[in-house]
Specification:
Elements lengths: L1 H22 L2 H4 L3 E2 L5 H9 L2 E9 L5 E10 L2 E10 L11 E3 L3 H14 L27 E8 L3 E3 L2 E3 L1 H7 L4 H15 L6
Antiparallel strand pairs: 1-7, 2-3, 2-6, 3-4, 4-5, 6-7, 6-8
Helix pairs in contact: 4-6
Length: about 200
């Protein structure tokens, strides 16, 4: 009986270690660029964690700003962060980093969704082709924001971006990558609790 119990514990521990390895994002690495994040805090998260999933909203119309929300996985634990960068300032100021309350199981479910749907294969809109077909002339927005979804490992980045994806998805549906992008973004935001 002791041998069966010991064997069961060994299997559980091996599976736990195996799952941690799976969290290291081997799948997206083949689609990612070898690159370090430009934002200093995002770069710090990239270097100090096995995996970072982040969402950024970038505005360039009136003021150059970026709002970030991220969850970072390391040592079998997820942590959440929220910060804002004003790029219009002449001198770069370290942003105020706000920790977020996140649930490990919920974050694992988001990562499982990313893996199942292979979110890292989303190409983004590269700044054009927002809408085609009959509705193209009726779908216009000015001074909108770019939304960026980031998947980061220690030395790799995947970061598809769309210009106002929710607006164009409602006005001109049919872009499967954009639909998956907004679904992934919503899943990611859903696990980010309130700041501490």
């Amino acid at each position: 009986m002791k041998n069966i119990f010991a064997f069961s514990i060994a299997v559980i521990l091996f599976s736990s270690c195996h799952n941690t390895k799976a969290m290291s994002a081997a799948q997206p690495d083949q689609y990612a660029r070898t690159e370090q994040a430009a934002d200093p805090f995002l770069h710090e998260l990239q270097q100090n964690n096995e995996l970072v999933l982040a969402f950024a909203v970038e505005t360039y119309a009136w003021a150059k700003t970026v709002s970030y929300k991220a969850i970072a996985f390391n040592n079998d634990e997820w942590r959440g962060y929220n910060w804002y960068v004003n790029k219009s300032q002449a001198v770069e100021v370290m942003p105020n980093i706000n920790p977020l309350t996140v649930n490990n199981d919920s974050c694992n479910a988001v990562w499982d969704f990313f893996k199942t749907k292979e979110v890292w294969k989303i190409k983004g809109d590269t700044g054009d082709g927002f809408c085609t077909g009959d509705k193209a002339n009726n779908c216009t927005i000015n001074d909108g924001a770019y939304w960026r979804l980031l998947i980061l490992t220690k030395d790799k980045i995947t970061d598809p971006a769309y210009y106002e994806p929710e607006f164009f998805e409602q006005c001109c549906p049919g872009n499967t990558d954009r639909a998956l992008f907004t679904e992934a973004q919503h899943k990611l935001q859903s696990v980010m609790g309130i700041g501490r």
